[in-house]
Specification:
The complex is a heterodimer of chains A (347) and B (221).
Chain A lengths: L9 E6 L8 H10 L12 E5 L15 E2 L2 E2 L7 H4 L4 E2 L1 H5 L10 E2 L27 E5 L8 H5 L5 E3 L6 E3 L9 H5 L5 E4 L4 E4 L4 H5 L5 H4 L6 E5 L6 H8 L4 E2 L10 E4 L5 E3 L5 E6 L3 H8 L3 H16 L5 H7 L24
Parallel strand pairs in A: 1-14
Antiparallel strand pairs in A: 1-12, 2-7, 3-4, 5-6, 8-9, 10-11, 13-14, 15-16
Chain B lengths: L6 E6 L13 H4 L2 E4 L1 E2 L8 H6 L10 E9 L2 E9 L16 E7 L17 E7 L6 E5 L6 E2 L6 E7 L2 E9 L10 E10 L11 E2 L4 E5 L7
Parallel strand pairs in B: 1-4, 1-14
Antiparallel strand pairs in B: 2-4, 3-13, 4-5, 5-11, 6-7, 6-12, 7-8, 8-9, 10-11, 12-13, 12-14
Classes of the chains: A alpha+beta (347), B mainly beta (221).
């Protein structure tokens, strides 16, 4: 089945220059949505240190997506590759009675884990003094050509007309997991207790109440912008189509994602004499091209130019938008405070 | 539909007969080797599946041993097949459980097996999957359309040993669902080998209907 275009499309922009790597978004999502049985190892939102192998391990090397418009076979990485929900022997540590017993995680097999979400935290890339890293946030990108939806032989995934969010109909899903194979970003999870696929739901119940998704609202770095792409005054449209500084991740996968990234600027690298090499940024542009495509050069140049305009006392609408001194400016039409809403009883 | 059907007679057994997966009464029931073939790839409704499996083999189980019996007012059907690398449950993201199914025209007479029925003539499937305590009863009106029936009287027992599965489906002759009338009942079989990641429409199956001969019960019309 192919996905029909929705009436309007929710879009997000993540600013990699502002992400702190604090995982507040990750924890906000985890506590809100994935605390049920079978969801222990699910991280619908994840932040990975880059360059890194990602979550799951070697995240972008498992196939899926499209090549020349044709589906690319993919694989669904194992739980160990995603990172299991570890166990901790708290009792041994806290009842050690003077003996020092560190708190060690163990995997399902009882052995120390060899991988986990954001396992290579802060390893980064490059060689001193040109070491570098940045944080890459990921959620389901609610792609305009969703490989997950098109792969399902049962039409168990569908796209909401009102916002383009892709959901799994868990009553229809029989747990075949072709969707997870086909997603090139590996943002589909599998619940072994219920034997169904599960994924980021875009916090649609919050959106329907005018509240921004938890990952967006909880971001202390104000790194996330959200709006419908059809709103030409909205930040996503302005940043993607007007300023052209927000770029899709791995557009070569062919799924037309609706999450975009402001690529990271970095200071000049050092040359062998220990001097600044103004021609080469610390984060190699070639690496950023791999992630964000050929438009990254122009995007970085625009951001740098606008920064310099402000630094020299000028005004920049782009910088104002990226800074968003008024928090609600980031949130598009989703500025409702959830604390003021009637809430259903806790489960 | 009946001209070339392979016939499997259901043995009329005593109510107390041992018809567990390795039960002794199956010897009297008699067993029939039924050849299987891969389901057609071109019939898979997903372009992804057709592409991803174009160069992969599946549905390679050559045959399944079938036996049937009627006892205690219920039909018992046993499927026995080689599974040297069993997948006894879904233990990881990329682990697929062994499974099998019996397929029937939902009205007991007419349906197209190759397409899993259609809007007018659905197919009923009795589906067992390793690691689950209850089998599923599904109704399909074409490939990819099956829906699980929330309430049913079907049960299944399974045993794996000596490199093979033995699965027994058991349903009352009078329960709701496909009518289990005396005489020839068209049925088909599908087997999914979890070790080969088979699922959905990727299976070994009987390309055409077989006939299950349901015996006349004593004292019943």
């Amino acid at each position: 089945m192919t996905a029909t275009a929705p009436g309007r499309q929710l879009a997000m922009v993540f600013d990699l220059n502002k992400c702190l790597g604090c995982q507040s978004c990750t924890v906000a999502c985890k506590t809100l949505w994935t605390d049920a049985p079978g969801m222990e190892a699910m991280w619908w939102n994840i932040v990975n240190t880059m360059p890194g192998r990602g979550t799951p391990r070697d995240a972008f090397s498992h196939g899926g997506g499209y090549s020349d418009g044709e589906p690319v076979p993919g694989r669904f990485p194992s739980l160990a590759e995603y990172g299991e929900a570890w166990s901790f022997d708290h009792a041994a540590t806290f009842e050690a009675q003077g003996e020092r017993i560190p708190l060690h995680p163990t995997g399902r097999d009882g052995a120390p884990p060899e991988w986990g979400p954001n396992w290579d935290e802060d390893l980064g890339g490059g060689t001193y003094p040109n070491s570098y890293y940045f944080y890459l946030q990921q959620v389901c990108a609610n792609c305009s050509r969703p490989a997950c939806l098109e792969a399902c032989p049962r039409d168990s995934l569908y796209r909401r007309e009102e916002d383009g969010i892709i959901l799994v109909d868990e009553e229809r899903c029989h747990g075949y997991r072709f969707c997870a194979e086909a997603c090139p970003y590996k943002r589909i999870y599998f619940n072994p207790v219920r034997a169904v696929a599960q994924k980021c739901i875009g916090c649609y119940p919050r959106l329907e109440a005018g509240v921004a998704p938890a990952c967006v609202r909880q971001c202390p770095g104000r790194a996330r912008h959200i709006d419908y792409m059809e709103n030409r005054q909205g930040h996503p449209y302005q940043l993607v189509h007007e300023w052209k500084v927000a770029l899709p991740l791995r557009a070569d996968f062919g799924t037309e994602p609706n999450v975009f990234y402001i690529p990271p600027l970095s200071p000049p690298a050092f040359n062998e004499r220990g001097e600044f090499d103004e021609a080469n940024p610390r984060v190699p542009t070639e690496y950023l091209r791999e992630l964000f495509g050929p438009g990254v050069d122009a995007a970085l140049a625009t951001i740098q130019q606008e920064r310099e305009t402000v630094a020299s006392g000028g005004q920049s609408a782009l910088m104002d938008m990226l800074i968003s001194r008024e928090w609600n400016d980031l949130l598009g039409p989703f500025t409702e405070n959830p604390a003021g809403l009637d809430r259903p009883p806790a489960r | 539909m009946t001209a070339t059907m392979l016939r499997i007679p259901a043995h009329l057994a005593a109510a107390a007969a041992d018809l567990a997966p390795r039960g002794t009464a199956w010897t009297q029931a008699g067993e029939h080797a039924v050849p299987l073939a891969p389901t057609p790839l071109e019939a898979q409704p997903s372009a992804y599946v057709r592409t991803a499996w174009a160069a992969r083999s599946y549905g390679t189980l050559p045959s399944v041993a079938v036996a049937a019996a009627v006892a205690g007012g219920a039909l018992h059907v046993r499927l026995r097949w080689a599974a040297p690398s069993p997948r006894t449950g879904i233990t990881d993201n990329n682990v697929y459980a062994d499974a099998c199914a019996l397929l029937f025209p939902a009205d007991g007479r007419e349906a197209v097996l190759a397409t899993m029925g259609d809007d007018r003539s659905p197919v009923e499937a009795w589906h067992w999957r390793a690691g689950t305590s209850l089998p599923f009863v599904l109704t399909a009106r074409g490939a990819g359309t099956s829906e699980r029936r929330p309430h049913h009287d079907l049960t299944a027992d399974a045993a794996w040993d000596h490199g093979e599965w033995a699965v027994v489906f058991r349903r009352s002759l009078t329960a709701a669902g496909v009518p289990l009338r005396t005489g020839d009942l068209p049925f088909g079989i599908a087997i999914w080998q979890g070790a080969n990641e088979e699922r959905a429409g990727l299976a070994s199956h009987t390309p055409a209907w077989l006939a299950l001969e349901v015996p006349r019960l004593e004292g019943k019309a």
